[in-house]
Structures are given as C-alpha cells and as structure tokens.
Design goal:
The complex is a heterotrimer of chains A (about 160), B (about 900) and C (about 425). With about 160 residues, chain A is of the alpha+beta class. Chain A has seven helices and four strands. Chain A folds into two domains: about 5-60, Orthogonal Bundle (Arc Repressor Mutant, subunit A); about 75-150, 3-Layer(aba) Sandwich (Glutaredoxin). In chain A, strand 3 (about 130-135) and strand 4 (about 135-140) form a beta hairpin. Chain B has about 900 residues and is of the alpha/beta class. Chain B has five domains: about 1-90, Ubiquitin-like (UB roll); about 125-270, Alpha-Beta Plaits (2-Layer Sandwich), CATH 3.30.70.20; about 280-345 and about 535-715, Rossmann fold, CATH 3.40.50.740; about 350-530, 3-Layer(aba) Sandwich (Dimethylsulfoxide Reductase, domain 2); about 750-880, Barwin-like endoglucanases, CATH 2.40.40.20. Chain B has 28 helices and 34 strands. A seven-stranded mixed β-sheet of chain B has the order 14-13-24-23-22-15-16. In chain B, strands 27-31-28-30-29-34 form a six-stranded mixed β-barrel. Chain B has a five-stranded mixed β-sheet with strand order 2-1-5-3-4, sandwiched between helices. In chain B, helix 8 (about 325-335) runs parallel beside helix 22, helix 12 (about 430-445) runs antiparallel to helix 14 and helix 12 (about 430-445) crosses helix 15. Chain C has about 425 residues and is of the alpha/beta class. Chain C has three domains: about 20-230, NADH-ubiquinone oxidoreductase 51kDa subunit (Rossmann fold), CATH 3.40.50; about 240-320, Roll (Ubiquitin-like (UB roll)), CATH 3.10.20.600; about 325-415, Up-down Bundle (de novo design (two linked rop proteins)), CATH 1.20.1440.230. In chain C, the strands form two sheets. Chain C has a five-stranded mixed β-sheet. Classes of the chains: A alpha+beta (about 160), B alpha/beta (about 900), C alpha/beta (about 425). Chains A and C meet through helix 2 and helix 5 of A and strand 4, strand 6, strand 9 and helix 13 of C.
Chain lengths: ~160, ~900, ~425
C-alpha cells in the first residue's frame, strides 16, 4: 500500500502526545480511515507495523468501535440518528425517503459510491431531532421535505 | 491476618486472596468458566457470583479479594438462581451438539449444565448459526459453541504473548478469530485450545478421533523436542498416543506447551517406522533377524578394529537419546571398541560453549533455573531466538519484558520482536567485533570484580576495534553501541541467553570469551539454548571425545583410573574426535566404521553433500533410528529404535534438571541399550543391565555429578543442579582463552555481500518434526527471510521462489519479506533436508572443535516463471 | 430561568464559540489566577465544601474522588475529561464545548492543579467533529496565553492538555472503559478495585471527570464552595444542565439549580407539551434511567429524590413522550441501543439484552406471544444484579420500567398478535 509520508509524520507527531505508543492506535486508525475512506486489512496491518502492535489486536480494537468502517464507503457518509428522541420526532421515516430517493439502506453504499448510510446511536443533537451528520456536518430539524435538499449539496 | 467466614466456615489468610481461592482453601467449590489458574481474573462469565454480607450486589468470587471479617455465602438461593440465570444465557445460543462435539466428556459447560439443570428452553428466537471454520490445518474454530470467556485471547495475549487471536466486533455480535479470519498466523502453541472450556477451539489432529472417557491411560512424561523438558501427559488408547496435553501446575512449563510439544506427538504414530533390522546384501538393504544384524555388526567392527585399530571406529549419538542409552553407548565404545571417538550433536555448539564457560567461570555456570529469567533485571540474547528454539523458555523472556525488563538482542529478534528494546542484526564477524566493543565499553563503566585474574587479564589486555570501525562494520551507529553498553552496565543480575549460532562461526571461540567476560562483568546468569531434549544429558554421560562419564576430563590420569576401576574397563588415554572431526575423518577415509544412534547426519550438519560424501566413504555404517532417515540410506546395518514414549529413561535439560521419561506405549523394537549390550557381549564386555534403573544406578556410582541419585528418585522432576553436592573442582584451563585479536578479525573476515544466517525454526526440530504430519502442515518447506530493501531490489514478494547460491551449490526457497532484516543479511531455515545446510560449507574451529559455517557472498535470484504463477493467484485473491 | 446569569451556558445562544479574549472579558481565567494563588489542598477544600457531585451520571462527590487521587503516593497523575457524551438524549457537554470551550479548559487546569496532574486528555466522542475543531483551537489559544504549558501563569505549574477522540462506543463513557480506550484497547470496563484514582491511565492515579463537572469548577472557585453549596437541593447542591428533548415546545439545554422539578422543566422552561397534548411519560436522565409516569413529575430533579421514585438523575437528559407515542416501540429502540452498545464482556448483558430485544421486536411487529410480557420481566430480572458494569443493569431496569409503567400497552401487543 502506498502510504504518503503525511500519515507517517502525523503518527510520529501523535506519539509525542502519549506515554505509550499503544495509545496512538485509535488516532492512527482515524488517520488511515480519513485517507482511504475505510480500514482495509492492509491498512490494519500497516497500522500494526507502524505502532508495533500485533495485527490481530489492531483488528480487535478497530472492530470494537462503530465509527471505523471495514468495508469501502461512499464519498459521503450519512450518519442518521434513530435513537429515541430522533425516532419519536420522525427519524425512522427518513429512512424511507433515503431508500426511495437513492435506494440507500443502512450499512450500504449507493452504486455510484456517492453516499453510504449508517444508523447512529444518538449524535447529541436531540434538541433538533431528528438529526444526522453528513461527513462532519451536523444537520438538525430534518423533515421528509428538507432532507433531500440537504443531501443534494453533497456531490 | 485476614479472617473470613465462608458458608459458616471460618478461615484465615496471611495475605489477601480472591474469594475463589479462599473458598478452595476451605474446600468449597464455586463454579467458574472464564477463570483459569494461569490467567488473570476477568470477571466476565458471572458464574462465580457469591453473596457477600453488607454488599447489596452479588460479587464475582474470581476477582473480588477477601477482607478481614468478610462473610461470604456461596450456595444461597439468590446465588443458585444467579448461576441458573447465567447458565441459561450461555445456553440459549449454544448449539447443544454434544453428540458430535469433540469436547463432550471434558466440557466445562456440559458439566455445569448437568449440575445446575438444563435451561428451560424458553428461548424461542432462533439460535445464532455460523459454520465451523476449518481453514486452518490444525485448529478448528466453532463460533456457535463459543461462550466468549476469552480464555483463549487472554492466554494468547498475556501468557503466550503471541497475540494472534482477538475478538472481532462487539457485544452479542462479537467472535474470536485470528487476523485473517481463517487460518492462523501464529506460533501454534495450542495453548488456546488447552484453555477453551468448551468445544469452540479444538485440535484437528484428533478430530472425532476418540472420546475422553475412552482413554485407556494417561502417562506423565517429558517432551522430547527441545532442551527445556516440558512435562506433558500422553493419553493412550489401543497402544497408541492419541493426544499430548500439559497439566496445569505440572512441571516447569506449568500447563503450557509449544507447537512441537502439543502437536508433534504424531510422529510417534508415523506410518513408516522401522520395525525390523535391515542389512545390506549385494548392495540392497534386506530385513534380517536381530541375531543376524548383531552378529554382522560384531564381526565387521572386530575386523575393522583388527585391521585399522580402534580409532578407525567412531560413534555418534543423538541429543534425543536418553541418558541410559547414551551412557551404555559410550561404555561400549570405550570399553569394548577401545576408542574415545564418541560425540553427539551437543558437540557442535552446546557442549563447547558450556565447556568454555565452565573452564573460565565455574562448573555449573549454565545451570540456571528457567523460571529465573523473568526475575532478572535485564536480558541479553545472542545466537538464536529463544522463542523458536526453546519456546517455553522464550515465554519467560516475554514475561520479563512485559514487566519492563530491558531485552537486548544481537541477531534476528524473531519472536522477541515486540519484546526487545533493541535488536542488532549483522553478519557473524561483525558480531564478534560488536561484542568486543561492548565488553570494552562495559569495562569502562563497571569495575572488575577481581575474582578471576586470568579472565581479567584478558579483559584488560585485548585491543578492541575502534568504536567507529566496530559501528561501521556492524551497520549501527556508535551511539547505538554506547547506549547498549550503558543499558547493560545498569543491569545487576541479567540473564544472558546464548544460542548455537554464536558458536558455529570462525570466531566462535572469541564470541564465547567475550560472552564469558560479559557474564563476569555483569554478574550474569547464562542460559544455553538447546535444540534437543538431552544435549546436556549426553554430555554428562560422557558422550564426548575428551570427557568421562564421571564428569571429569579423561586426560587427567587419576580421574581416568578411578573411572576404569569403577567400571572394570580400560579407557584409552587420548581424546577422540568431535562430531565435525569424525565427519572430516570419514570423508578422508580415516574413519572406517561409524555407529550412529538416532542422528540424521545429513540433516544435522551443514554442507549436506559433503556429509553424504563422508557417509559414502565409510566402510561400515550402522544406523539405529526410528525412521529410515537419509543417513540410513548409506548404512550397512539399520537397527530399529524405540521412541522416547516406548521406553523408560531420563533426560537432563538445559538447566541441568534430570527428569524421568516414562513408557506410554509398547514399541515394536528393543531398547537401544539392550541392543548395544548384546553387541558388547560379543566383545567380551558383559553389561548385564536388566532395566534403565539399573543403568542409572551405575551412572550414579561412576558420575561425580549424578552421585547418589536413582531413577525413582528423580521422578518428581525436582532434581536440579547441583543435585546432592557442590560443583566439582578441577583445574581451570585457559586454553583458547588467549588475547583475541579483533583487528585481524576485521581484516580477515572479508564479509562482503549478502550473508546467510540460519533460522532455527519454531515448528521444526531436526529429524523428529519431519515425521510429524501436524508440524509439516504448518510449514511444509524451508524458507528464506529477506529484508525489504533487498527484496525490493530483487522485486521479491512474499511467497516468491528465490534461488540461493553459494560456491557449494544452489537451492530454491520460498521467500518471506521481513522488515527487521538489513540488506546484507538473509535468514534461511534448515529443516527437512532442502534448507540452507545444502549449500553451507564449513570447517572445524580448532578451539571449539565445532563446525564453523559462515556463509557470505550469497547470490539470490528470483525464479521468474514460478513467480508469475503465484502473482496470478495473488491478483485473483485481491480481486475476489 | 432564574435570575442568576448563565454560568455553564454562557454564550450558548450565540452562533460561534467564545474565543479566549471574549472569555477573558467575562472574567474568564480569573478563577485560575485565584486557584494558583492558593495551595492545591485549599482548592480541593473549596470543591469539597461545594458539595459538587459528578455530572456524568453516577453522582459521586467530586471532592472525595480528587482526595483519593491526591492521597495516592505516586507522583505522576492524570486528569481525564470524560466528553464521551453518549447517553441518548444528552447534548449538554457538546454545548459547553462548542460555545464556551475555555470554561472547560479553565476547569481542567484548576482541577489538575488541585489533584497534582501534569497532563490531561479530553476523551471526546467521535460523533462530535465540530467540537473537536473548536477545542483544538481553544487549547492552542490557552497555550499561547500560558494557561497551559510548562509554567502556567509563570508559576511553575505544569499542565498539558490533549484531545483524544472516541470512535463510537457508548461504553467508553464508563470511566475504566474510557481509560482502556485511551490506552488503545477495546473499550471494556476493568475490574475494580483498583480504582482509576489509584491505578488508571498507564497504571497511574487518574481522575476522570465529566465535562459539566469540570465546567463547574471555575464558578466554585469564584464564589467559594460554601456559597455554591447553597444553590439548589441541600443534599446535592449546585447548577445542573438539563438536556430536554422529545415532545416539548422548546427543546434545548437548560441551566437550573439542582432539585428543580420535572414539571417546572417541562411546563415552565420548555413551554409544555407540543400541541398541548397529554404527557404520557418522561425519561428523566437519559435512556439509562427508568421511565416515569406523569404522576411523578413533581419529584425534584437530583441524585437523591429521583431514586425515591424509582429512577435516577443520570445525565439529566429529559426525554418527553406525549400521548401519541408507542411505548413498546420506544422500549424496543432503547433495548436495541443497549444491545448495540453492550461491550460483550459479561454474559448477562451480552446474551440477555439481545434476548430482550428479540422478544420486544416480535411484540412490536405484532407477533408477541402469550407470556412475553412476563418473559421480559423474568429475563430482565435475570440480568439485573449480575452484570459487570451498569450498562446491562440499566438496560434491564429500563425494560422493567416500561413493562411496569405501560403494562397494558405490552399486553395489547400480544393480543393483537
């Protein structure tokens, strides 16, 4: 895997933050996910090698956390909350809209790789429920009417 | 003092213990699943919940420590209800497939379900279903049966330190798997399957092969693979070993085994065992009777003795022979043949190293308890990877490292990669220069103790290479060297672990001298890695060209005479030839008859073609072995031998602990010592032993080291050096310990180009593992490890076939990239004939008498055609 | 809102975060100056006197937690800020970080000084990417102004602060799981003892405090512990943030004194139920706390009183349900959440919660079976009291509360199937 020196530099920078290099694991996984969109087995092995952590351990850790993706994702990640507050405010109905408009279902990616959808457990935007994160942007007060307009801004 | 009450019983403890241990001490059983004595408390299964007075919630007995005045109840209604609840949870998704589960009969979940009643079957949701994973050649994973107690993962992480298993996913969707999700990329210690309480991880070697309750007997014995001497239990049915298992708390391995100990037992059942003597007639080996074979051996040996003299005959024993076989063998050679030409594979490194250290330090200096490694305050490893050569000893190094003890490795770190602070890989001449520089740096930092003037003279007098030159030659910066010396100087009781590769070079004697100096300066404890179970024992038995079975040098007349009197034989006064020297002599036609017991010389020595030539030159070759080895192909008489599981005897391990090996099954042959006694009889030397115990008692009479011991007495495995007395005193020799000339090493070494170093293989061990289908299934062929820079230069990927050539010939090996390696060193394994020994020349080191086999200037080429095939496969895998 | 000026929510109604200068204009970092002019022990005493309890959910007295860490003889100590705000319904910590990050930083520096920690980490949940950027900028500002670094305010006090992002694991809000996660491991809770205050991050004494807890510290220093203790409930005094969501007219975060009643929150501060419908139930402290019926909403909201009506204050996340809500569906959604977030370490939580979800799922689909309501009760009873950490415990308690309070609705699901 071609690894730009940028990630390596960032990981070396990270090492200074912690007493033990093992603490760099989550941040390092984030860096690889940021760069490649997901964590392939090769990426996990590379992280293992850089941080001198057994590769099985790296896999065990990365699969524990819901925000690490172990399959290729689309260009934009829709993280839709359906927890209680969002659910009672109509969050689940938005799923039908996404399916109707993009054929998109939870844990899947559109064939054009534009969007991937994951269901989130509370994203801490309950006052503007229902809400979603698209990549790192928070969108609240979603309705069946406005959600497509928001998503269409993401190419 | 802590006093607690458990189920009404009062019991006191000096130190806080867990409630579980307290209950055990009080004779109260608390059910557990995730708990295992080898592992740290986990508290996950929740089966061991108990009531503690004044604590509202039930507490886990496995993790909760007792405090004074605590009142615990382990069988209240609340507790029993909780256990039932937990068991029900464990069973709702369990497939309940006991009828075809290999674990049935020894399954902890099955036992608990029987005790606490079956689940009521109110789970109506459909169990989780997953297919059994059979992708691995040795280990089967069954996710449906897994109860996620994580014993396996904890074992692999915390005890074995291999960390090859982990939990994937989270919560009810989590499961245990190796990185690949299929086959393991691990050390195959199998300790995961040993601790699995259910049938989630099982061994393929006896899949659906037997039921635990059908086992006929269990025999406690000692492993015959390496010099650690782990205790294990052989389980027997129909006169066949069906499984080897460790027993928790038993022996120095305390319930752990390595790949060879756990899976390698299947060589016992290898189909092509020799079962009758063979004799060459008209160029063909034919089955003959024992009498014919013995008469033939007697006649030919007498004839050669008559015509060429006793010293035209030589004997080689294997490091797998028992003490008793080895003892009788040397007695026959000395007493009946009249020669000291006796040696073993121990004479190629282990023996010379030990001899060297004993000479300039003290006898018994290498007899240190393996368990002590984890208590040392620093570890220096050189000449071999302990986690591959002596895996259970290697675990001690890892355990020390986990406690923060610095581990410094000269050589490839192998299984210590994540456990060593620094690893210095270089060629063999550079290692000598590097060691010299280290000693020089350390002596500036640590005062000389003043106890050994001769050694101190050498330490003070030798002229090391300038630091810059040493660093340039080794490929490491001067600061690396100085920092390492500094780290070593800070150690007050380090373990110094030494493998054979440091001995088998032209500068082997110098390496030993510097290591002795290092040990002396740092107050170190030496551990000599030993690749065979009884290298120490065969040395102790006098299977050495210059040592008596009494543990004394035969050149000293008083010792020799005393030995002669005790045994009633005459011992020639001149030392004989070493293993390497015998091979040379055979090649040159000076050795006419050779008796090889249990050793496959073609595998055991470098430069296989040279060895084949030597064997071809021998007029009369006797090979006594379990299998028809390559060496046996050249034999005139082949005698079938018994395996270690088919006879009684003793092994002495690398820490010089003497242990009993017990007979587990009946073999189709005769004990080696009996056969030799019969041959001996024809020479007029009557031995008259009726049992191994008889032989042992003679050993105890003649040997100053083994004195007063009995075979029965050593059965507890606690016979450790110096047994019943202090070390022997004999003159300290300083022969070979003269001032080494490092500058000439640098000038003469001519170490340019790529250097091949031997890689001792974790899954293989000389001529036993090649008869183990299980071990061969893990790694069926030798390979070449190659660094990234060199591999990139040659465009070599993992799995590519590469041709490795020296002036002795070429071999083709499968390549594995290894980021640890520099661009001027490659590693090659040696097992099963085709390895690097095929192309490794050697010469006898005049001081150690060991073969020196430095291989440099190696040419490596990629085999293009095969690579393309492989590439296609790799691409299709990636694409799929 | 009472007459007091907002403390924790200062700047909350403005669009962006307060920069360090703005924060300074409001008197920010004055408490830090004050603290550094005192002995660490005196700062600790003020916090003890304030009666402040941890705002993350468990309500452990903050001063006491600190004093355990102070008492540990090891010199290297850590302060961790738990910003893994994962309790569904909770969004108060995000508001503090996004609107007034220096309040948290100031609170952390003072706290670190009191407990003797030279470095600290903010464990920020991965779902808050914006908060991360804001905090990074604020930390940079604080370093530039010498509020962080090797000699804070030139007084030789050392404190270095870093951000560490979680990656979607609710369990990491549990302090030992948080530490495991910070150490690069699977975020599973540890056996206690040893407690983090003695053996936490990197085996060193470690204080883990919630964002809101730490954000209260500057104010306690400002007005003094005694004065702070006079706010709200005498049993557990102080300011509390309530995240209100669901069917109220004005959802949002409210800064109120401890002990305010649910009724006041819903009807006074949040303007009542949307559409003026009837209140059906309310979860007072995030989905980990048992649901309450309308007849208990006069209960004061604090750690003490809510326990008396069978629930808990939790994180103070109030989720309001009007009469239209299908409570079986809510219960299912909560159980799904716990199933998804169960770390899998202990049997009852891993297996039991998943079983509960399966039963609730079929009931919700209208295919409930006779006895399912009792089965829910029995299975949750079998989980309760046997789990490794509170997650499974809370999952069981949540289901029990729904079944007990809305039993008829559960019965209907069986009838209809």
């Amino acid at each position: 895997m071609a690894l730009d020196n940028k990630i390596l530099d960032e990981i070396n920078e990270l090492k200074r933050k912690y007493e033990d290099e093992r603490s760099c694991l989550l941040p390092a996984l984030y860096l690889f996910q940021r760069e490649y969109g997901w964590l392939s087995p090769e990426a996990l092995e590379r992280v293992a090698e850089i941080l001198n952590i057994p590769k099985a351990t790296v896999k065990g850790v990365s699969t524990f956390y819901a925000m690490f993706s172990h399959k290729p994702m689309g260009r934009h990640l829709i993280q839709l909350c359906t927890n209680v507050a969002c659910m009672i405010m109509g969050g689940e109905r938005l799923l039908d809209i996404l399916k109707g408009r993009y054929g998109l279902e939870p844990n899947l990616t559109t064939p054009d790789r534009r969007f991937s959808l994951v269901i989130m457990e509370c994203i801490g935007a309950c006052d503007t429920a229902p809400a979603m994160l698209v990549d790192t942007d928070l969108h609240g007060n979603l309705t069946e009417e406005n959600i497509i307009g928001i998503l269409e801004r993401y190419e | 003092m802590i006093t607690i009450t458990i189920d009404g019983k009062k019991i006191s403890f000096e130190r806080p213990v867990t409630i579980l241990d307290a209950a055990r001490a009080a004779g109260i059983h608390i059910p557990t699943l995730c708990h295992h004595d080898i592992l740290k408390p986990y508290g996950g299964c929740r089966l061991c919940l108990v009531e503690v007075e004044k604590v509202p919630k039930l507490q886990t007995a496995c993790s909760q420590y007792v405090s004074d005045g605590m009142v615990v109840r382990t069988e209240t209604e609340k507790v029993v209800d909780a256990r039932r609840a937990v068991l029900e949870f464990l069973l709702i998704n369990h497939p309940l497939d006991c009828p075809h589960c290999d674990k049935a009969g020894e399954c902890e979940l099955q036992d608990l379900a029987a005790k606490y009643g079956p689940a009521m079957g109110r789970f109506a949701e459909g169990k989780r279903r997953y297919p059994e994973n059979l992708e691995d050649p040795l280990i089967v994973r069954n996710r449906e049966r897994c109860i996620l107690c994580l014993r396996c993962v904890r074992m692999c992480d915390d005890v074995q330190g291999a960390s090859a298993l982990s939990v994937t996913g989270r919560g009810s969707k989590s499961y245990i798997e190796p990185f690949s999700g299929g086959a393991y990329d691990c050390e195959y210690c199998g300790n995961c399957l040993a601790v699995c309480p259910v049938g989630a991880i099982t061994s393929r070697t006896h899949r659906h092969g037997f039921r635990p309750w059908l086992m006929e007997k269990e025999v406690e014995t000692v492993c015959s693979y390496c010099g650690v001497g782990c205790s294990l239990v052989l389980q027997v049915r129909n006169n066949s070993v069906v499984r080897s298992v460790p027993r928790s708390g038993l022996g120095l391995n305390r319930g752990l085994l390595c790949s060879k100990g756990r899976f390698g037992y299947d060589c016992l059942n290898y189909g092509d065992r020799l079962d009758a003597p063979l004799m060459r007639r008209n160029g063909v080996l034919e089955r003959v009777t024992w009498t014919e074979a013995i008469n033939c051996i007697a006649d030919r040996m007498k004839e050669i003795k008559r015509e060429n003299g006793s010293d035209a005959i030589a004997g080689i024993v294997s490091g797998r022979c028992t003490n008793e076989d080895a003892y009788v063998f040397q007695k026959f050679f000395r007493g009946a043949i009249g020669t000291n030409n006796i040696d073993s594979v121990a004479g190629m490194a282990y023996g010379p190293a030990q001899r060297f250290f004993e000479k300039i330090l003290v006898q018994g200096v290498t007899a240190n308890p393996i368990q002590g490694i984890s208590d040392s305050d620093g570890i220096f490893v050189i000449g071999g990877d302990p986690t591959a050569i002596n895996p259970v000893l290697g675990l001690q190094v890892r355990s020390a490292s986990k406690k923060g003890v610095p581990v410094i490795v000269v050589g490839h770190p192998g299984g210590l990669k994540r456990y060593s602070k620094r690893a210095f890989i270089m060629n063999s001449a550079a290692e000598t220069v590097f060691l010299a520089a280290l000693v020089d740096e350390i002596k500036r930092r640590r005062p000389l103790p003043g106890e050994r003037p001769v050694l101190e003279e050498i330490i003070n007098g030798f002229r090391p290479a300038p630091l810059e030159d040493a660093s340039k030659m080794s490929g490491f910066g001067p600061n690396d060297l100085v920092d390492t010396a500094h780290a070593l100087s800070n150690m007050s009781r380090p373990s110094i672990i030494i493998g054979r590769d440091i001995v088998q070079t032209d500068t082997g004697h110098m390496n030993l001298l510097f290591l002795a100096a290092l040990t002396y300066l740092l107050n170190g404890r030496i551990y000599l890695l030993s690749e065979l179970p009884n290298e120490q024992g065969v040395l102790d038995m006098g299977c050495q060209p210059d040592m008596l079975p009494s543990g004394r040098p035969l050149t000293v007349e008083t010792f020799r005479k005393r030995c002669e009197e005790t045994l009633g034989i005459i011992i020639p006064p001149a030392p004989g030839l070493s293993y390497a020297e015998m091979t040379e002599a055979a090649h040159e036609g000076r050795i006419k008859a050779l008796y090889v017991m249990g050793e496959d010389m073609v595998l055991g020595l470098p430069d296989s073609n040279y060895v084949r030539g030597a064997l071809r030159n021998i007029e009369f070759l006797v090979v006594q072995d379990r299998f028809f080895t390559e060496t046996a192909k050249y034999a005139d008489v082949v005698l079938p031998a018994l395996s270690w599981a088919e006879k009684e005897g003793s092994y002495t391990n690398l820490e010089r602990r003497i242990q009993l090996t017990r007979k587990a099954v009946e073999g189709e042959s005769i004990e080696e010592w009996k056969v030799i006694s019969e041959i001996s009889k024809t020479f007029g030397l009557h031995m008259g032993y009726r049992s191994a115990a008889d032989i042992f008692s003679e050993i105890a009479r003649v040997s100053q080291i083994y004195r007063e011991l009995t075979l029965e007495g050593i059965a507890d495995g606690k016979s450790v050096w110096p047994y019943r007395g202090g070390p022997l005193r004999y003159d300290m020799h300083t022969e070979g310990t003269k001032l080494p000339d490092i500058v000439s090493v640098m000038e003469e070494s001519g170490m340019s180009g790529v250097h091949v170093r031997r890689e001792a293989h974790l899954f293989h061990s000389q001529n036993a593992s090649r008869y183990s289908p299980a071990l061969l299934s893990i790694t069926p062929e030798p390979h070449l490890k190659i660094g990234d820079i060199l591999a990139d230069r040659l465009s070599v990927k993992d799995g590519d076939r590469v041709k490795v050539s020296t002036d002795a010939g070429s071999i083709v090996l499968s390549a594995r990239r290894d980021p640890c390696l520099p661009d001027n060193v490659v590693l090659a394994s040696t097992f099963d004939g085709g390895g690097i020994f095929e192309i490794t020349k050697w010469r006898v080191n005049p001081i150690t008498k060991a073969p020196a086999s430095d291989v440099n200037g190696v040419v490596i080429d990629k085999e293009e055609a095969i690579t393309v095939l492989h590439k296609d496969r790799a691409d299709s895998l990636v694409g799929g | 809102m009472n007459s007091r000026e907002s403390v924790l929510l200062k700047n909350a109604d403005r669009p962006g975060p307060a920069g360090i200068d703005e924060y300074g204009e409001w008197g920010g970092y004055r408490s830090l100056h004050k603290a550094l002019s005192m002995e660490p022990g005196q700062v600790l005493d003020e916090v003890k006197k304030s009666g402040l309890r941890g705002r993350g959910g468990a309500g452990f007295p903050t001063g006491m937690k600190w004093s355990f860490a102070v008492a540990d003889p090891q010199t290297q100590k850590y302060l961790l800020c738990n910003a893994d705000e994962g309790e569904p319904g909770t969004f108060k910590d995000r508001i503090i970080i996004e609107k007034n990050p220096h309040l948290l930083i100031e609170g952390m520096v003072i706290s670190a000084y009191a407990v003797g920690a030279a470095s600290g980490y903010i464990y920020l949940r991965g779902e808050y990417p914006k908060a991360k950027d804001i905090l990074l900028r604020a930390i940079k500002e604080a370093y530039e102004k010498n509020y962080l670094g090797d000699s804070i305010l030139g007084k030789g006090v050392v404190f270095h602060l870093h951000i560490h992002c979680g990656a979607g694991a609710y369990i990491c809000g549990e302090e030992t799981a948080l530490i495991e996660s910070l150490e690069g491991k699977r975020g599973q809770p540890r056996i206690k003892p040893p407690f983090p205050v003695n053996e936490g991050f990197s085996s060193k004494p470690t204080v883990v405090n919630n964002v809101e807890t730490l954000a209260n510290i500057p104010y306690i220093l400002e007005i003094g512990g005694d004065e702070y203790a006079k706010i709200g409930s005498p049993e557990c005094p102080g300011l509390k943030l309530f995240s209100v969501s669901g069917h109220v007219k004005r959802p949002g975060v409210y800064e109120l004194p401890m002990g305010v009643t649910l009724r006041e929150i819903i009807y006074t501060h949040c303007g009542g139920i949307r559409g003026d419908r009837k209140l059906k139930g309310v979860i007072p402290g995030g989905v980990s706390t048992p649901v309450l019926l309308p007849d208990t909403i006069d209960c004061p909201m604090d750690f003490f009183h809510l326990g008396k009506v069978g629930s808990m204050l939790g994180s103070g996340a109030v989720i309001v349900f009007d009469e239209t809500v299908d409570m079986v569906k809510v219960c299912l959604r909560i159980t799904k959440f716990f199933e998804h977030e169960s770390c899998g370490k202990c049997t009852p939580c891993r297996e039991g919660v998943s079983w509960l979800r399966a039963v609730l799922e079929r009931m919700s689909n209208g295919s409930g079976r006779g006895g399912d309501k009792d089965l829910l009760t029995e299975v949750s009873n079998n989980i309760a009291g046997k789990t490794f950490c509170p997650l499974g415990e809370n999952a069981a308690a949540a289901v029990q509360s729904f079944v007990n309070n809305f039993g008829d609705e559960f019965k209907e699901k069986i009838k209809s199937g």
